[in-house]
Known about the structure:
This protein has helices at residues 13-22, 55-58, 76-97, 131-144, 169-176, 189-200, 219-225, 248-252, 262-268; strands at residues 2-6, 26-31, 41-45, 63-66, 102-108, 149-155, 157-159, 183-184, 186-188, 208-210, 217-218. It is an alpha/beta fold and 271 residues long. The chain has a 7-stranded parallel β-sheet, with helices on both faces. It has a two-stranded parallel sheet with strand order 7-9. It has a two-stranded antiparallel ribbon with strand order 8-11.
Amino acid sequence: MTILVTGATGLVGERLLPRLANRGEDCRALVRPGKACPAGATAVEGDLFDSASLADAVAGVSAIIHLAAVFRTQDTDLIWKSNLEGSRSLISAARTHAPEARFIMASTSNVYNRTSTRPSRETDSVEPDQAYPASKVAAEKLLRESGLNWSIVRLPFVYGDGDGHLEMLPKYLATFGRHPANRMSIIHHRDVATAMQLALTGAFDGRIVNICDEAPSTIYELVRIVGEDMAPSSEPMQDPWSQHVDGTLARSLGFQPVVRTVYQAVQEGIM
Length: 271
């Protein structure tokens, strides 16, 4: 199977792509001119802001895994341009040059309403205010209406494989605030690969699917795991289901996480 991966040098992509290559997949990594290509992939140059430049990248592929996204910036124009218009260009190129390819888009659990009254489900209405999740919702809509063979994988907080992401959690808390008892859905990089490999088989075709491990962890526990302290509290929680997603659909479609909890990751030394 020939797979085009966008965002291959990002936090998720640089850990996913070697796993795909190790399974024997023929991986192409979309890179801008002059950029290095991750090991195990063939570099194909192209610009997500220029659909015509993507023709060679998508030609002949069996599947596209679209990971490329921008979110760690205050530049909302760049967020919208990258996440919506970049997706539009790639979808257009796929429709023209690879209409039979399976198109898998990585999205985010941040699209859900933080005031949800239960773990968030794929069928919930989503109208986020912030630029990043709002741009992802708009990109999802483009893909769903494209006529391509699509699936959308909504990822929660991703961690592990030495990415340093979980270690940044205390910094996020200082900005956004969270009750220490809030439980947050998370996923290890190994199981991003587990999910994407399942999506490549067609198990998720035509669906939006939440991915998460088997034990949402409290913010307090996660902060302690990375060696930081957080003030405990027994005050009532606001938005107790924020960042907590329902993974029932994924499990019904065959998804079984290899790293079932963050404590397993700690024990196995794969943080």
